[in-house]
Write a structure and sequence with these properties.
The protein is α/β, with parallel strands linked by helices. 59% of the residues lie in helices and 6% in strands. The protein has a five-stranded parallel β-sheet with strand order 2-1-3-4-5, with helices on both faces.
Length: 375
Amino acid sequence: MKVMFVDDEVMILNGLKRALFRTKWTLLFADSAQKALNILQTEQVDFIISDMRMPVMNGAELLDQVAKLHPEIVRIILSGHSDEEAAKRASFVAHQWFNKPCQPQLLEEALNRIYFIRSSLPDTSVQQVVGKIKTLPSPPKVYMRLNASLNDKSIDMQKIASIIANEPSLVAKILQLTNTSFFSNGKQVESLTEAITRLGVDLVCSIVITAETYAKIDDIPGYSITDEQKHCLSTARLAASMVDPSLRRETILVGLLHNIGKFILYEVSPEAMAKYLKQRQVGEDNIELEQKLFNADHTQLAGYLLHLWNFSYKLIENIVLHHQPLKLIESDFGSGAAVYVASRLLRKKEVDKDFITHFNIADKIEVWRDKAIEY
């Protein structure tokens, strides 16, 4: 694994060199953004970790260049100086943000985890596509609805969350930013309402409008991102009704994000997408077909992307396993299991018999099936 650190303070680079000496990484160092770009012309790097405030070209500007020139490289900000506006800008070019001083062990764990997950996507072209993603497509003009609602003096965080919750891609972006160390203070946030409360309405509105500005949606004949998002929302609502109240927030989030990898498939290969739309079985998971055509399936893409964005392992695991009922029965009936059932019922497909028997939910399936018709 090859890691480059960029910081205009040489003492900090020397400190990082000493702190990470025991790792088996190949370490590269640059004391300016331009030197980093020069190194990347001859070196293949897995991670670039940059300070935010640097003369001539700051960290966000550097990572923006890296995203364009070398999209497969994982981009991280390591900085002790910033503000909310800088953090927002960096969130669209950096996969993660760590505050200085940062415990070397924390950095090691994060990079090793991402590197391990990335090994499940051996196809470099797929890594490049995921690396390029700054935000996911979001067709409706959420910002306009949000802005109009703010004129209502009775508006509260829950109402704001309900507007944004209709767009899984925006939920992912807001939670990504909230869970950077600049905002999280060491406590991971997985509730959209809590995320909005922590960030503040003004910053959330700014994130929304910026995300919608970045989102470039291609017209794909035979495929509707809007329909996929509606399915995710219905899945989240139905699945949340199946679990213990303590799991409802997590289940809603898993439901909203469970098909987020599908939004990336077209970016992997427009040609493969055309074949996929002709060969897929509507309403089925089509995992084998995705693997054949894209060298990856949407659950792998989702898992890698959300690891890059620093989502919790538990949430990612539930999203990745939502098409694997025999894996889900290895744990208690939780958010992943509920999303699997909800998605199958909403698409009017049968639930795996061994799954039903294991969790003893035969009597509940019919009740949930009726509820799925309502949704």
